[in-house]
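Sample entry was shown:
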Amino acid sequence: MSGINQYYFLEKKRRGRSIANESPIADVLNQFLKKCHIDYNPYEDKVIALFKEMVGTMIEKFITDIRMNGMILNVKVSLPTIKAELMMVRDAMRDNINRKLGKEVLKSIIIK
């Protein structure tokens, strides 16, 4: 045997059988992100798009900032009257977004 093949054979013999488990790529990626302390929500863009779709283009003009922090959607509105309207329907909107996505992605919507 040549040097490289002999080394590979000895290394494989020393390690024994492989203990690798098969996992879906999404699980592996989530484990990696948690280990690196990176907070990434794959549903963030979908939730924001659904929220904007629900409120419509007229109300969307008065939204100054919208971002998702964990399972909470934070929305900043520039007009107090629109803020009051959104406060009344936020629970229904949360339930509607969760139903459209098929799982509980949002726990609450905070309107500021």
